[in-house]
Protein backbone atom coordinates (compact mmCIF):
# COMPACT_ATOMS: atom_id res chain seq x y z
CA UNK A 1 0.00 0.00 0.00
CA UNK A 2 2.76 2.43 0.96
CA UNK A 3 4.75 1.68 -2.16
CA UNK A 4 1.77 2.28 -4.42
CA UNK A 5 0.96 5.50 -2.59
CA UNK A 6 4.52 6.83 -2.88
CA UNK A 7 4.63 5.69 -6.50
CA UNK A 8 1.51 7.65 -7.42
CA UNK A 9 2.89 10.76 -5.74
CA UNK A 10 6.25 10.34 -7.47
CA UNK A 11 4.63 10.01 -10.90
CA UNK A 12 2.52 13.10 -10.20
CA UNK A 13 5.69 14.96 -9.24
CA UNK A 14 7.47 13.99 -12.47
CA UNK A 15 4.50 15.19 -14.54
CA UNK A 16 4.44 18.42 -12.51
CA UNK A 17 8.14 18.99 -13.11
CA UNK A 18 7.56 18.57 -16.85
CA UNK A 19 4.68 21.02 -16.78
CA UNK A 20 6.67 23.53 -14.75
CA UNK A 21 9.54 23.35 -17.24
CA UNK A 22 7.35 23.96 -20.27
CA UNK A 23 4.65 26.31 -18.96
CA UNK A 24 5.13 29.95 -18.10
CA UNK A 25 4.83 33.44 -19.51
CA UNK A 26 6.76 32.03 -22.49
CA UNK A 27 5.61 28.51 -23.28
CA UNK A 28 8.40 26.19 -24.29
CA UNK A 29 7.85 23.18 -26.50
CA UNK A 30 9.37 19.84 -25.67
CA UNK A 31 10.62 19.43 -29.24
CA UNK A 32 12.48 22.76 -29.09
CA UNK A 33 14.20 21.64 -25.92
CA UNK A 34 15.07 18.21 -27.31
CA UNK A 35 16.38 19.69 -30.54
CA UNK A 36 18.66 21.92 -28.50
CA UNK A 37 17.15 25.27 -29.45
CA UNK A 38 19.62 27.66 -27.69
CA UNK A 39 16.98 30.20 -26.59
CA UNK A 40 14.72 27.53 -25.17
CA UNK A 41 17.63 25.84 -23.39
CA UNK A 42 18.84 29.13 -21.94
CA UNK A 43 15.41 29.94 -20.52
CA UNK A 44 14.96 26.42 -19.18
CA UNK A 45 18.40 26.08 -17.60
CA UNK A 46 18.97 29.59 -16.29
CA UNK A 47 15.50 30.42 -15.03
CA UNK A 48 13.10 27.52 -14.87
CA UNK A 49 15.36 24.70 -13.72
CA UNK A 50 16.73 26.38 -10.54
CA UNK A 51 13.23 27.47 -9.69
CA UNK A 52 11.87 23.96 -10.15
CA UNK A 53 14.67 22.46 -8.06
CA UNK A 54 14.07 24.99 -5.31
CA UNK A 55 10.32 24.31 -5.35
CA UNK A 56 10.77 20.53 -5.26
CA UNK A 57 13.53 20.51 -2.65
CA UNK A 58 12.06 23.37 -0.61
CA UNK A 59 8.60 21.75 -0.53
CA UNK A 60 10.11 18.47 0.62
CA UNK A 61 12.12 20.27 3.30
CA UNK A 62 9.03 22.05 4.61
CA UNK A 63 7.15 18.76 4.80
CA UNK A 64 9.98 16.85 6.43
CA UNK A 65 10.74 19.58 8.95
CA UNK A 66 7.04 19.69 9.90
CA UNK A 67 6.93 15.93 10.27
CA UNK A 68 10.09 15.82 12.37
CA UNK A 69 9.00 18.68 14.61
CA UNK A 70 5.59 17.11 15.21
CA UNK A 71 7.22 13.81 16.05
CA UNK A 72 9.73 15.12 18.59
CA UNK A 73 7.37 17.64 20.20
CA UNK A 74 4.63 14.96 20.21
CA UNK A 75 2.23 17.55 18.84
CA UNK A 76 0.44 17.26 15.51
CA UNK A 77 -0.46 20.92 15.17
CA UNK A 78 2.90 22.69 15.04
CA UNK A 79 5.49 23.58 12.45
CA UNK A 80 8.38 26.06 12.22
CA UNK A 81 6.13 28.82 10.87
CA UNK A 82 3.55 28.46 13.64
CA UNK A 83 6.25 28.65 16.31
CA UNK A 84 7.48 31.92 14.75
CA UNK A 85 10.83 30.42 13.67
CA UNK A 86 10.39 31.17 9.95
CA UNK A 87 9.57 34.83 10.51
CA UNK A 88 12.30 35.06 13.10
CA UNK A 89 14.98 33.69 10.82
CA UNK A 90 13.78 35.92 7.99
CA UNK A 91 14.20 38.97 10.22
CA UNK A 92 17.54 37.87 11.61
CA UNK A 93 18.91 37.12 8.13
CA UNK A 94 17.72 40.51 6.90
CA UNK A 95 19.42 42.27 9.83
CA UNK A 96 22.69 40.45 9.13
CA UNK A 97 22.54 41.36 5.44
CA UNK A 98 21.82 45.02 6.27
CA UNK A 99 24.78 45.05 8.67
CA UNK A 100 27.19 43.07 6.48
CA UNK A 101 26.12 43.46 2.83
CA UNK A 102 28.84 41.02 1.71
CA UNK A 103 26.69 38.21 3.16
CA UNK A 104 23.94 38.80 0.60
CA UNK A 105 25.22 36.03 -1.66
CA UNK A 106 25.22 33.52 1.16
CA UNK A 107 21.71 34.39 2.27
CA UNK A 108 20.35 30.81 2.19
CA UNK A 109 23.13 29.41 4.36
CA UNK A 110 22.85 32.39 6.72
CA UNK A 111 19.10 31.85 6.98
CA UNK A 112 19.68 28.17 7.73
CA UNK A 113 22.02 29.05 10.59
CA UNK A 114 19.56 31.66 11.90
CA UNK A 115 16.72 29.14 11.80
CA UNK A 116 18.78 26.62 13.72
CA UNK A 117 19.85 29.11 16.38
CA UNK A 118 16.32 30.42 16.80
CA UNK A 119 14.68 27.01 17.13
CA UNK A 120 17.19 25.93 19.74
CA UNK A 121 16.74 29.26 21.51
CA UNK A 122 12.99 28.71 21.42
CA UNK A 123 13.35 25.35 23.12
CA UNK A 124 15.58 26.82 25.82
CA UNK A 125 13.13 29.67 26.52
CA UNK A 126 10.05 27.42 26.50
CA UNK A 127 11.48 24.24 27.95
CA UNK A 128 8.47 22.76 29.64
CA UNK A 129 5.44 21.09 28.16
CA UNK A 130 2.92 23.75 27.30
CA UNK A 131 -0.57 23.22 26.00
CA UNK A 132 -0.87 23.09 22.23
CA UNK A 133 -3.09 26.16 22.08
CA UNK A 134 -0.66 28.18 24.17
CA UNK A 135 2.25 27.18 21.92
CA UNK A 136 0.30 28.13 18.81
CA UNK A 137 -0.86 31.49 20.15
CA UNK A 138 2.55 32.47 21.49
CA UNK A 139 4.09 31.34 18.22
CA UNK A 140 1.69 33.31 16.05
CA UNK A 141 2.20 36.44 18.15
CA UNK A 142 5.97 35.97 17.77
CA UNK A 143 5.59 35.41 14.03
CA UNK A 144 3.48 38.56 13.60
CA UNK A 145 5.98 40.63 15.56
CA UNK A 146 8.89 39.42 13.44
CA UNK A 147 6.82 39.90 10.30
CA UNK A 148 6.27 43.59 11.01
CA UNK A 149 9.91 44.05 12.04
CA UNK A 150 10.95 42.41 8.78
CA UNK A 151 8.66 44.67 6.79
CA UNK A 152 9.96 47.78 8.54
CA UNK A 153 13.60 46.78 8.04
CA UNK A 154 13.09 45.71 4.45
CA UNK A 155 11.35 48.93 3.44
CA UNK A 156 13.48 51.15 5.65
CA UNK A 157 16.77 49.93 4.21
CA UNK A 158 15.49 49.13 0.74
CA UNK A 159 16.49 45.45 0.89
CA UNK A 160 14.12 43.24 -1.12
CA UNK A 161 12.65 40.13 0.52
CA UNK A 162 13.35 36.72 -0.98
CA UNK A 163 10.99 35.30 -3.55
CA UNK A 164 10.96 32.31 -5.88
CA UNK A 165 10.97 34.59 -8.91
CA UNK A 166 14.50 35.79 -8.17
CA UNK A 167 16.10 32.40 -7.46
CA UNK A 168 19.64 31.93 -8.81
CA UNK A 169 21.77 28.84 -9.31
CA UNK A 170 24.01 30.00 -6.46
CA UNK A 171 21.08 29.96 -4.05
CA UNK A 172 19.93 26.61 -5.40
CA UNK A 173 23.31 25.07 -4.61
CA UNK A 174 23.19 26.53 -1.10
CA UNK A 175 19.76 24.97 -0.57
CA UNK A 176 21.01 21.60 -1.80
CA UNK A 177 23.98 21.77 0.58
CA UNK A 178 21.67 22.48 3.52
CA UNK A 179 19.40 19.62 2.40
CA UNK A 180 22.28 17.15 2.30
CA UNK A 181 23.68 18.32 5.64
CA UNK A 182 20.27 17.85 7.25
CA UNK A 183 19.83 14.42 5.65
CA UNK A 184 23.20 13.32 7.00
CA UNK A 185 22.18 14.37 10.52
CA UNK A 186 18.81 12.68 10.01
CA UNK A 187 20.45 9.37 9.08
CA UNK A 188 22.43 9.46 12.35
CA UNK A 189 19.37 10.10 14.50
CA UNK A 190 16.89 8.00 12.49
CA UNK A 191 17.03 4.71 14.48
CA UNK A 192 16.38 6.60 17.73
CA UNK A 193 13.32 8.49 16.49
CA UNK A 194 11.02 5.56 17.34
CA UNK A 195 11.42 6.41 21.03
CA UNK A 196 9.30 9.54 20.67
CA UNK A 197 6.27 7.23 20.64
CA UNK A 198 6.72 7.06 24.42
CA UNK A 199 6.34 9.79 27.03
CA UNK A 200 9.33 11.68 28.40
CA UNK A 201 8.93 9.88 31.72
CA UNK A 202 9.18 6.44 30.09
CA UNK A 203 12.21 7.56 28.07
CA UNK A 204 13.97 8.68 31.22
CA UNK A 205 13.38 5.27 32.78
CA UNK A 206 14.68 3.58 29.61
CA UNK A 207 17.73 5.87 29.86
CA UNK A 208 17.13 7.23 26.37
CA UNK A 209 18.81 10.67 26.13
CA UNK A 210 15.65 12.44 24.97
CA UNK A 211 16.99 15.97 25.22
CA UNK A 212 20.05 15.20 23.17
CA UNK A 213 17.89 13.61 20.47
CA UNK A 214 15.50 16.53 20.60
CA UNK A 215 18.18 19.17 20.10
CA UNK A 216 19.71 17.12 17.33
CA UNK A 217 16.38 17.04 15.49
CA UNK A 218 15.72 20.73 16.21
CA UNK A 219 19.03 21.50 14.45
CA UNK A 220 17.80 19.73 11.33
CA UNK A 221 14.34 21.32 11.45
CA UNK A 222 15.69 24.82 12.15
CA UNK A 223 18.28 24.51 9.40
CA UNK A 224 15.75 23.38 6.80
CA UNK A 225 13.01 25.80 7.80
CA UNK A 226 15.51 28.68 7.85
CA UNK A 227 17.00 27.83 4.46
CA UNK A 228 13.57 27.56 2.84
CA UNK A 229 12.59 30.92 4.34
CA UNK A 230 15.79 32.43 2.97
CA UNK A 231 14.68 31.48 -0.52
CA UNK A 232 10.90 31.56 -0.56
CA UNK A 233 9.94 33.80 2.32
CA UNK A 234 7.62 32.62 5.08
CA UNK A 235 5.13 29.95 4.12
CA UNK A 236 2.62 29.65 6.88
CA UNK A 237 1.01 26.40 8.11
CA UNK A 238 2.34 24.23 5.27
CA UNK A 239 4.71 22.26 7.47
CA UNK A 240 1.87 21.49 9.88
CA UNK A 241 -0.56 20.49 7.15
CA UNK A 242 1.65 18.27 4.97
CA UNK A 243 2.14 15.41 7.47
CA UNK A 244 -1.61 15.29 8.02
CA UNK A 245 -2.28 15.23 4.27
CA UNK A 246 -0.02 12.23 3.91
CA UNK A 247 -1.62 10.66 6.99
CA UNK A 248 -5.08 10.90 5.37
CA UNK A 249 -4.04 8.34 2.78
CA UNK A 250 -2.28 6.09 5.32
CA UNK A 251 -4.06 6.66 8.62
CA UNK A 252 -2.31 3.85 10.48
CA UNK A 253 1.22 4.76 9.46
CA UNK A 254 3.82 5.88 11.95
CA UNK A 255 5.44 9.29 11.49
CA UNK A 256 8.65 7.75 10.26
CA UNK A 257 6.77 5.85 7.55
CA UNK A 258 5.19 9.12 6.44
CA UNK A 259 8.48 10.87 5.65
CA UNK A 260 8.48 9.96 1.96
CA UNK A 261 4.84 10.85 1.21
CA UNK A 262 5.08 14.04 3.27
CA UNK A 263 8.14 15.15 1.32
CA UNK A 264 6.45 14.27 -1.98
CA UNK A 265 3.27 16.14 -1.05
CA UNK A 266 5.39 19.15 -0.14
CA UNK A 267 7.22 19.12 -3.46
CA UNK A 268 3.99 18.63 -5.38
CA UNK A 269 2.16 21.45 -3.65
CA UNK A 270 4.97 23.96 -3.79
CA UNK A 271 5.89 23.22 -7.39
CA UNK A 272 2.33 23.37 -8.69
CA UNK A 273 1.52 26.46 -6.64
CA UNK A 274 4.54 28.11 -8.25
CA UNK A 275 3.56 27.02 -11.75
CA UNK A 276 0.07 28.35 -11.08
CA UNK A 277 1.48 31.64 -9.78
CA UNK A 278 3.58 32.02 -12.92
CA UNK A 279 0.90 31.14 -15.45
CA UNK A 280 -2.52 32.10 -14.18
CA UNK A 281 -2.33 35.79 -15.08
CA UNK A 282 0.86 35.65 -17.21
CA UNK A 283 2.94 37.63 -17.91
CA UNK A 284 2.28 39.01 -14.40
CA UNK A 285 3.70 36.70 -11.72
CA UNK A 286 1.76 36.21 -8.51
CA UNK A 287 3.65 35.64 -5.25
CA UNK A 288 3.95 31.87 -4.76
CA UNK A 289 3.83 32.10 -0.98
CA UNK A 290 0.43 33.83 -1.20
CA UNK A 291 -0.92 31.10 -3.49
CA UNK A 292 0.34 28.49 -1.02
CA UNK A 293 -1.15 30.24 1.98
CA UNK A 294 -4.50 30.33 0.20
CA UNK A 295 -4.26 26.51 0.17
CA UNK A 296 -2.54 25.78 3.50
CA UNK A 297 -4.54 28.29 5.57
CA UNK A 298 -7.94 26.61 5.08
CA UNK A 299 -6.34 23.18 5.47
CA UNK A 300 -4.91 24.23 8.83
CA UNK A 301 -8.33 25.48 9.91
CA UNK A 302 -9.76 22.08 9.01
CA UNK A 303 -6.98 20.42 10.98
CA UNK A 304 -7.71 22.56 14.05
CA UNK A 305 -11.42 21.80 13.90
CA UNK A 306 -10.86 18.09 13.30
CA UNK A 307 -7.98 17.66 15.73
CA UNK A 308 -8.93 20.31 18.27
CA UNK A 309 -10.74 17.96 20.54
CA UNK A 310 -7.96 15.44 20.55
CA UNK A 311 -4.95 17.73 20.93
CA UNK A 312 -6.15 20.80 22.82
CA UNK B 1 17.15 -2.23 49.02
CA UNK B 2 15.28 1.00 48.41
CA UNK B 3 15.55 3.05 51.54
CA UNK B 4 13.88 6.30 52.63
CA UNK B 5 15.85 8.02 55.36
CA UNK B 6 14.01 10.88 57.11
CA UNK B 7 12.58 12.13 53.84
CA UNK B 8 10.46 15.29 53.79
CA UNK B 9 8.84 16.73 50.72
CA UNK B 10 6.63 19.79 50.29
CA UNK B 11 4.98 21.49 47.32
CA UNK B 12 4.50 25.26 47.58
CA UNK B 13 5.15 25.05 51.32
CA UNK B 14 2.37 22.50 51.72
CA UNK B 15 3.96 19.51 53.35
CA UNK B 16 3.32 16.17 51.63
CA UNK B 17 5.67 13.97 53.65
CA UNK B 18 7.32 14.81 56.95
CA UNK B 19 10.30 12.85 58.05
CA UNK B 20 9.37 9.46 56.65
CA UNK B 21 11.73 6.52 56.94
CA UNK B 22 11.08 3.18 55.29
CA UNK B 23 12.73 0.29 53.52
CA UNK B 24 11.15 -1.50 50.62
CA UNK B 25 11.56 -5.25 51.02
CA UNK B 26 13.27 -6.71 47.98
CA UNK B 27 11.68 -9.48 45.89
CA UNK B 28 8.23 -8.93 47.42
CA UNK B 29 5.05 -7.13 46.47
CA UNK B 30 4.30 -4.04 48.51
CA UNK B 31 1.04 -2.14 48.13
CA UNK B 32 0.84 1.55 48.80
CA UNK B 33 -2.58 2.64 50.02
CA UNK B 34 -4.05 5.85 51.34
CA UNK B 35 -6.72 8.45 50.56
CA UNK B 36 -6.78 10.48 47.34
CA UNK B 37 -4.39 13.38 47.08
CA UNK B 38 -2.24 12.17 49.94
CA UNK B 39 0.96 11.91 47.86
CA UNK B 40 1.14 8.30 46.71
CA UNK B 41 2.10 9.26 43.16
CA UNK B 42 4.47 11.88 44.58
CA UNK B 43 6.29 9.10 46.37
CA UNK B 44 6.79 7.41 42.98
CA UNK B 45 8.14 10.64 41.51
CA UNK B 46 10.65 10.77 44.35
CA UNK B 47 11.73 7.21 43.62
CA UNK B 48 12.22 7.81 39.90
CA UNK B 49 13.99 11.06 40.77
CA UNK B 50 11.57 13.35 38.95
CA UNK B 51 11.31 15.21 42.26
CA UNK B 52 14.01 15.78 44.85
CA UNK B 53 13.22 15.63 48.58
CA UNK B 54 13.75 18.84 50.56
CA UNK B 55 15.47 16.94 53.30
CA UNK B 56 16.53 13.38 53.96
CA UNK B 57 17.86 10.89 51.43
CA UNK B 58 16.57 8.09 49.28
CA UNK B 59 19.20 5.42 48.74
CA UNK B 60 19.41 2.08 47.00
CA UNK B 61 17.41 3.18 43.97
CA UNK B 62 17.85 0.33 41.50
CA UNK B 63 19.26 1.01 38.05
CA UNK B 64 16.46 -0.63 36.22
CA UNK B 65 13.08 0.76 37.24
CA UNK B 66 9.91 0.37 35.21
CA UNK B 67 6.76 2.41 35.76
CA UNK B 68 3.20 1.64 34.76
CA UNK B 69 0.59 4.36 35.23
CA UNK B 70 -3.19 4.00 35.23
CA UNK B 71 -3.23 5.48 31.74
CA UNK B 72 -0.14 5.33 29.60
CA UNK B 73 0.36 7.67 26.71
CA UNK B 74 1.45 6.50 23.30
CA UNK B 75 2.18 9.12 20.67
CA UNK B 76 2.57 6.92 17.60
CA UNK B 77 0.32 4.15 16.24
CA UNK B 78 2.51 1.25 17.34
CA UNK B 79 1.57 -2.40 17.21
CA UNK B 80 1.89 -4.56 20.31
CA UNK B 81 5.07 -6.10 18.92
CA UNK B 82 6.61 -2.71 18.18
CA UNK B 83 5.97 -1.47 21.70
CA UNK B 84 7.25 -4.60 23.43
CA UNK B 85 10.42 -4.70 21.36
CA UNK B 86 11.11 -0.98 21.36
CA UNK B 87 14.29 -1.47 23.35
CA UNK B 88 15.15 -5.12 22.95
CA UNK B 89 14.78 -7.45 20.01
CA UNK B 90 13.34 -10.56 21.61
CA UNK B 91 9.83 -11.25 22.83
CA UNK B 92 9.25 -12.98 26.16
CA UNK B 93 6.87 -15.83 25.32
CA UNK B 94 5.99 -16.56 28.94
CA UNK B 95 4.85 -12.97 29.46
CA UNK B 96 2.92 -13.02 26.19
CA UNK B 97 1.05 -16.17 27.16
CA UNK B 98 0.21 -15.07 30.68
CA UNK B 99 -1.13 -11.77 29.38
CA UNK B 100 -2.96 -13.35 26.39
CA UNK B 101 -1.01 -11.18 23.97
CA UNK B 102 0.30 -13.88 21.63
CA UNK B 103 -2.49 -13.41 19.08
CA UNK B 104 -2.47 -9.63 19.34
CA UNK B 105 1.18 -9.04 18.46
CA UNK B 106 0.53 -7.40 15.12
CA UNK B 107 -2.54 -5.47 16.20
CA UNK B 108 -2.27 -1.74 16.55
CA UNK B 109 -2.56 -0.79 20.22
CA UNK B 110 -5.13 1.96 19.51
CA UNK B 111 -7.58 -0.73 18.40
CA UNK B 112 -7.45 -2.71 21.63
CA UNK B 113 -9.91 -2.37 24.49
CA UNK B 114 -8.85 -0.51 27.63
CA UNK B 115 -8.31 -3.79 29.44
CA UNK B 116 -6.19 -5.32 26.68
CA UNK B 117 -4.21 -2.11 26.41
CA UNK B 118 -3.32 -2.21 30.09
CA UNK B 119 -2.16 -5.82 29.70
CA UNK B 120 0.01 -4.66 26.80
CA UNK B 121 1.57 -2.00 29.00
CA UNK B 122 2.18 -4.58 31.70
CA UNK B 123 3.90 -6.61 29.00
CA UNK B 124 5.93 -3.54 28.08
CA UNK B 125 7.22 -2.96 31.61
CA UNK B 126 7.93 -6.66 32.10
CA UNK B 127 9.95 -6.75 28.89
CA UNK B 128 12.27 -4.25 30.51
CA UNK B 129 13.12 -6.96 33.08
CA UNK B 130 13.02 -4.40 35.89
CA UNK B 131 14.57 -4.79 39.30
CA UNK B 132 11.85 -2.56 40.67
CA UNK B 133 8.40 -2.30 39.14
CA UNK B 134 6.26 0.67 40.12
CA UNK B 135 2.55 0.43 39.34
CA UNK B 136 0.34 3.47 39.83
CA UNK B 137 -3.30 2.37 40.13
CA UNK B 138 -2.87 -0.06 37.25
CA UNK B 139 -6.35 -1.60 37.55
CA UNK B 140 -8.44 1.54 38.05
CA UNK B 141 -10.07 1.57 34.61
CA UNK B 142 -10.35 -2.18 34.17
CA UNK B 143 -13.40 -4.40 34.49
CA UNK B 144 -13.31 -7.19 37.06
CA UNK B 145 -12.10 -9.86 34.64
CA UNK B 146 -9.17 -7.76 33.42
CA UNK B 147 -8.33 -6.76 36.99
CA UNK B 148 -8.02 -10.46 37.82
CA UNK B 149 -5.98 -11.29 34.72
CA UNK B 150 -3.71 -8.34 35.38
CA UNK B 151 -3.06 -9.00 39.04
CA UNK B 152 -2.77 -12.78 38.63
CA UNK B 153 -0.24 -12.47 35.83
CA UNK B 154 1.72 -9.92 37.83
CA UNK B 155 1.82 -12.12 40.92
CA UNK B 156 2.74 -15.28 39.02
CA UNK B 157 5.63 -13.57 37.28
CA UNK B 158 6.79 -11.79 40.41
CA UNK B 159 6.94 -15.06 42.35
CA UNK B 160 8.89 -16.66 39.57
CA UNK B 161 11.27 -13.86 38.67
CA UNK B 162 11.57 -12.22 42.07
CA UNK B 163 11.52 -8.58 41.01
CA UNK B 164 10.41 -6.04 43.60
CA UNK B 165 6.96 -4.47 43.19
CA UNK B 166 5.59 -1.29 44.70
CA UNK B 167 1.97 -0.82 43.63
CA UNK B 168 -0.60 1.85 44.40
CA UNK B 169 -4.09 0.35 44.63
CA UNK B 170 -7.39 1.89 45.66
CA UNK B 171 -9.24 -1.37 46.08
CA UNK B 172 -8.29 -2.32 49.65
CA UNK B 173 -9.42 -5.91 49.22
CA UNK B 174 -7.10 -6.33 46.25
CA UNK B 175 -4.32 -4.48 48.04
CA UNK B 176 -4.43 -6.93 50.94
CA UNK B 177 -4.88 -10.07 48.89
CA UNK B 178 -2.20 -9.42 46.31
CA UNK B 179 0.57 -8.05 48.48
CA UNK B 180 3.17 -9.20 50.98
CA UNK B 181 3.49 -5.81 52.64
CA UNK B 182 1.38 -2.71 53.03
CA UNK B 183 2.58 0.87 53.14
CA UNK B 184 -0.22 3.06 54.40
CA UNK B 185 0.17 6.80 53.93
CA UNK B 186 -1.84 9.23 55.98
CA UNK B 187 -1.26 12.65 57.42
CA UNK B 188 2.24 12.91 55.97
CA UNK B 189 3.23 9.69 57.73
CA UNK B 190 3.87 6.17 56.56
CA UNK B 191 2.69 3.09 58.48
CA UNK B 192 4.35 -0.12 57.37
CA UNK B 193 3.70 -3.77 58.02
CA UNK B 194 3.11 -7.24 56.66
CA UNK B 195 -0.24 -7.30 54.90
CA UNK B 196 -2.01 -9.64 57.35
CA UNK B 197 -0.74 -7.61 60.33
CA UNK B 198 -2.14 -4.47 58.84
CA UNK B 199 -5.72 -5.74 58.72
CA UNK B 200 -6.84 -3.34 61.41
CA UNK B 201 -10.37 -1.94 61.22
CA UNK B 202 -9.60 1.05 63.44
CA UNK B 203 -6.45 2.03 61.55
CA UNK B 204 -8.11 1.71 58.14
CA UNK B 205 -11.31 3.46 59.22
CA UNK B 206 -9.27 6.34 60.59
CA UNK B 207 -7.13 6.58 57.49
CA UNK B 208 -10.00 6.65 55.04
CA UNK B 209 -12.37 8.53 57.38
CA UNK B 210 -15.04 5.92 56.79
CA UNK B 211 -16.14 3.10 59.11
CA UNK B 212 -14.78 -0.09 57.51
CA UNK B 213 -15.39 -3.76 58.20
CA UNK B 214 -12.93 -6.56 57.53
CA UNK B 215 -14.20 -10.04 56.79
CA UNK B 216 -11.53 -12.73 56.70
CA UNK B 217 -11.22 -16.44 56.13
CA UNK B 218 -8.01 -18.46 56.14
CA UNK B 219 -6.65 -17.02 52.93
CA UNK B 220 -8.51 -13.91 51.95
CA UNK B 221 -9.70 -10.66 53.38
CA UNK B 222 -12.65 -8.58 52.26
CA UNK B 223 -12.72 -4.93 53.24
CA UNK B 224 -16.02 -3.12 52.86
CA UNK B 225 -17.75 -0.03 54.29
CA UNK B 226 -19.58 -0.81 57.53
CA UNK B 227 -22.88 0.73 56.53
UniProtKB/TrEMBL annotation, chain A:
Say where the protein is mainly found. membrane
Q: What are the alphabetically sorted keywords of the record?
A: Cell membrane, Iron, Membrane, Transmembrane, Transmembrane helix, Transport
What the protein does comes down to: Part of the binding-protein-dependent transport system for heme-iron. Responsible for the translocation of the substrate across the membrane.
Q: Where in the cell is it found?
A: Cell membrane
Q: Name one GO cellular component term.
A: plasma membrane
SUPFAM superfamilies xref list:
ABC transporter involved in vitamin B12 uptake, BtuC
| Species for this entry | Weissella minor
The membrane topology noted for this protein in its Swiss-Prot or TrEMBL record is:
Multi-pass membrane protein
Q: Which Pfam families does this UniProt record tie to the protein? A: FecCD
Q: Which GO terms describe its molecular function?
A: transmembrane transporter activity
Q: Which InterPro entries does this UniProt record tie to the protein?
A: ABC_BtuC-like (IPR037294), ABC_transptr_permease_BtuC (IPR000522)
What is the name listed in the Swiss-Prot or TrEMBL entry for this protein?
Probable heme-iron transport system permease protein IsdF
Chain ranges passing through the membrane: 52-73, 80-100, 106-126, 133-153, 173-193, 213-242, 286-305
Report the sequence similarity comment from the record.
Belongs to the binding-protein-dependent transport system permease family. FecCD subfamily.
What are the GO BP annotations of this UniProt entry? Answer: siderophore-iron import into cell
UniProtKB/TrEMBL annotation, chain B:
Q: Would you indicate the residue range of the signal peptide?
A: none
Respond yes or no to whether keyword Nucleotide-binding is given for this record. yes
- Which processes are annotated in GO (biological process)? iron ion transport
Q: What PROSITE patterns does the database record attribute to this sequence?
A: ABC_TRANSPORTER_2
InterPro entries in alphabetical order? AAA+_ATPase, ABC_transporter-like_ATP-bd, P-loop_NTPase, Siderophore_ABC-ATPase
- Locations listed in the record: Cell membrane
Q: Which domain of life is it from?
A: Bacteria
The annotated topology with respect to the bilayer is:
Peripheral membrane protein
Q: What is this protein called?
A: Abc superfamily atp binding cassette transporter, atpase
Species, as recorded: Weissella minor
